[in-house]
Amino acid sequence: MSHSDSEVNRTKGEFKKKLHVELKAKNLMKSQSYAALKNKMKTLRDARLLFAAASNNTENIEKQLALGASPNSADTHGRSALHIAASKGYKDVVKLLLERGADPNQNDKLCNTPLHLAACTHNLSIISLLLNAGADVRKLDLYGKNPVQLAESKLHILRRSWRDGSIEMVQVLTELQLIVDILISVYKQQTPGTNVDNLQMMKLSLNSEAPETVDDQMSKLLMELQGVKIS
């Protein structure tokens, strides 16, 4: 092989090598661009899910989840769609998110779970939903309060409102039944096997309570709540 042939072959080899490197770089850029685009689209879907939760829009939530949004997507404060819905009292949204796999024990940056926020806003129906979905009553918020302690304050408010006549009996009884449901859920989670028949009977009896006995039932429930040991 002549010197010129060797030079040509070397040039061809270098050209092929350079072409291979350039092709590899282009493929990498395409891959990175695709990954970046995919990540951007996911971020957008997650943001739309959070907005839908804040707007009480179950239809849009279904749509964003179907497109790939995470049911546990969170904002810069760590608040998930479930946190938002629980804090705003959007029961249907909470129920939907839980059915789609949202984590009831996810913490935001203040250590609040959706259960804490539902307790803070005294939304008993959402508290019950979260507990039935496995929300951990042992979790504490930034101030060292567990959800049961926060829910207890709701009962104090109910009793005060009942005594000063600012709340209707029908609403009181509905709220008390929800508190009983919460207690039953807590007992089942904390001490499986606990006999809750007395609570079930109390719940049933609330449907036929006379006005003069409502205060006594609230006192009994308050004692039950205060006697719950979270471990």
From TrEMBL:
Pfam families referenced in this protein's UniProt entry, alphabetically: Ank, Ank_2
Mark the ANK repeats by their residue spans. Answer: 77-109, 110-142
Keyword list, A-Z: ANK repeat, Repeat
UniProt cross-references to InterPro entries, sorted A to Z: Ankyrin_rpt, Ankyrin_rpt-contain_sf
Keyword Repeat in the entry? The reply is yes
Q: Does the keyword DNA-binding apply?
A: no
State what protein this is by name.
Tankyrase-like Protein
Gene designation per UniProt: AUGUSTUS-3.0.2_02736
